[in-house]
Amino acid sequence: MAHSLPQIAILGTGHMGGAILGGLQQTPDSWAGIRVTSASAATASSLAGPGVEAKSLEEDAQANRWAIEGADIIVLGVKPHYLLGLLEEVAPHAPASAVMVSIAAGITVAQMEAVWPGAVIRTMPNTPSQVRHGVTGLSVGSRVSPEQREAVVRVFETVGAVLPVEESSLNALSTFSGSGPAFVYFFIERFVEVAREHGFTPEEATTMVQGTFAGAMELLESSGKTPEELREAVTSPGGTTQAALGVYEAADLSAIIRQASAAAIARAEGMAKG
User: Fold this and answer.
1) Which whole-number Å values give the CA distances from 207 to 131, 193, 215, 272, in the listed order?
2) Which of 82, 118, 213, 225 has its CA 20 to 30 A from that of 146?
3) Residue 102 to residue 23: CA distance in whole angstroms
4) Do residues 106 and 137 make contact, with C-beta atoms less than 8 angstroms apart?
5) Euclidean distance between CA atoms 11 and 69, whole angstroms
6) Residues 149, 52: one domain?
7) CA 239, 240, 243 angle in degrees (round to 5)?
8) Residues 231 and 157 grouped into a single domain
9) pLDDT tens digit sequence for 132-168
């Protein structure tokens, strides 16, 4: 790194880029400085603060070039179809010692290394990073030093857990941790829907279902027990829970989850092929 503490640039501060910035702001003494860019002037104005400089592309077309001056870690916080274009834009102006970090699905390390001759790290954070309970998969390219890897891991640890994996596993990881929150919300939606069919008001159904999901996860984290142990504690032989679980088993829910996961992985692979 060019500094004892890394200088960080975040290009694009949507939901995920903004979440990362929020995490970094919790540990301001760990970074030499933070520069961020956004599309709109209003967003840039809201992001600037102690330890954070911000510019918008709306007001300065060269904002990205400004942000990467002296940067050690450059987070490319844009959607997949913009990522390689952004990388091509900043590559001629970025410090040779910088590591480029992608948070976009489907764009491979090889694709980025074909544009940027330096270090590349591909990550897959998930939306709970916005409340610092995220899970981020991380795969390093062929030119990444141990120091660069460690620094990028520290960045993402500010928003949750980090799982270093081989890139070949990243699409599968993104299916469970990246897409996983959507599946949880999908099940919550369905339970609320069915609860309303049984006469509960929308407010009652929401309180009952969301409270149950949140409480179950809190119990899982705090009890030290496995999901299987906690499930068995609720499931009395011949009782109501066992009757409901029997329906799930008859529908072969495990097979449905495997099929859904395979579809998500296939889509991610298709995105990588363009």
Assistant:
1) 20, 13, 11, 40
2) 82
3) 17
4) no
5) 12
6) yes
7) 90
8) no
9) 999 999 999 999 999 999 999 999 999 999 999 999 9
**Phi and psi (nearest 5°) for 11?**
-100, 100
Number of structural domains, the chain?
A: 2
Q: Does residue 173 form part of some domain? A: no
Q: Which pLDDT does position 1 carry in this prediction?
A: 56
Local structure of residue 4 (DSSP, 8 states)? S
199 and 230 share one domain: yes
CATH number of the domain enclosing 265: 1.10.3730.10
> Which tokens in the block code for residue 57?
């592309």
Range of the domain at 262: 180-272
CB atoms within 10 A of CB 182: 12
Same domain, 137 and 258: no
CA distance 88 to 177: 29
Q: 3-state DSSP call for residue 141?
A: coil
